[in-house]
Amino acid sequence: MKSVRNHYDEFLAPVYSWILGDFENAYQANVELFASLELSPEYGDLALDLGCGPGCQSLPLAERGFSVIAIDFCQELLDELEERAGDLQITTVCADLREFDQYIDEPPGLIVCMGDTLVHLPDTAAVDKCIDRVSRALKPGGTFVYSIRDYVSSEPAGADRFVPIRADDQQIFTCFLDYRDTVVHVHDVLYRKEGGAWKMHISDYLKLRLDTAEINQRLQANGLDISRQMTEKGMIVVVATKSAST
Ligand SMILES: C[S@@+](CC[C@H](N)C(=O)[O-])C[C@H]1O[C@@H](n2cnc3c(N)ncnc32)[C@H](O)[C@@H]1O
């Protein structure tokens, strides 16, 4: 089985934007989400995008006026983000997102960790530690937005464990999900037309089965209020706000 980092570096990065249903669609969904959440900076306010991927959150945040630090450990996805960023205020950092506080010299007004990224951390202790760091780092009155898929409330069985992601006449991408007690063993299956014939490539890794109730409790214990929770395109989105007086 691959580490998450190797899975992205060696398998997923070249097709990641394509499996999003094309970058433009994922970008537009975030433009609309951030508008509905009314996420706006004071001038120059810093936003951190943890696990930014190709930038479908970083770009809309920079367009809303945030100065964005976009952190990911996959350089190929950061290169894509940089190509799209143009003159927008986005600085990319190739690093482990858990070390984000090494790359900021002022408290961010906004931290996002979206698109099912938290589930990639190695265990729940690492998630707790990350939540604590995020809570401490935020500016008083600042906002944390995370989004994850629901791997807790039901367990697909039989044929439901095969999830078609995207297909065209050159490639077909399917996920096979094997649910265990605390993790989902994810197998990404890519068929690609190579020299006129279909060739299969498979890579597998683990995702944590995280419970938003537990993450939210941790945020609340750290002095944040859960101001919104909703489900958007199969993803649970949670907005938490740090008290202005902390
Ligand atoms: C599912 S993608 C989400 C990307 C983007 N936020 C989105 O919504 O499309 C998860 C991203 O997190 C990155 N990632 C996972 N674990 C990481 C870690 N510990 N440090 C840095 N990046 C990480 C992966 O490289 C990948 O780009």
Could you list the spans in which at least 5 consecutive residues all have pLDDT below 50? none
Question: How are the strands of the biggest sheet laid out side by side?
Answer: 3-2-1-4-5-11-10
Helix content: 25-40%
How many structural domains? Answer: 2
How would you name the CATH homologous superfamily of the largest domain?
A: Vaccinia Virus protein VP39
Oligomer: single chain
Q: What gap, in angstroms, lies between the N and C termini?
A: 43 Å
The CATH topology label of the largest domain is Rossmann fold
H/E topology pattern:
HHEHEHEEHEEEEEHEE
CATH class of the largest domain: Alpha Beta
Average pLDDT rating: 94
Verbal overview:
The protein has a 7-stranded mixed β-sheet with strand order 3-2-1-4-5-11-10, sandwiched between helices. Strands 6-7-8-9 form a 4-stranded antiparallel β-sheet, covered by helices on one side. It has helices at residues 4-19, 23-36, 58-63, 75-85, 124-137, 212-221, and strands spanning 46-50, 67-72, 90-94, 110-113, 143-149, 162-167, 171-179, 183-194, 197-208, 224-232, 235-242. The protein contains 6 helices and 11 strands. The chain folds into 2 domains: 4-150 and 210-242, 3-Layer(aba) Sandwich (Rossmann fold), CATH 3.40.50.150; 158-207, Single Sheet (N-terminal domain of TfIIb). Helix 3 links the parallel strand 1 and strand 2 (67-72). The chain is α/β, with parallel strands linked by helices and 246 residues long. The site of S-adenosylmethionine has 21 residues, from helix 1.
Strand-helix topology:
Elements: H1 4-19, H2 23-36, E1 46-50, H3 58-63, E2 67-72, H4 75-85, E3 90-94, E4 110-113, H5 124-137, E5 143-149, E6 162-167, E7 171-179, E8 183-194, E9 197-208, H6 212-221, E10 224-232, E11 235-242
Parallel strand pairs: 1-2, 1-4, 2-3, 4-5
Antiparallel strand pairs: 5-11, 6-7, 7-8, 8-9, 10-11
The structure holds S-adenosylmethionine.
S-adenosylmethionine binds next to helix 1.
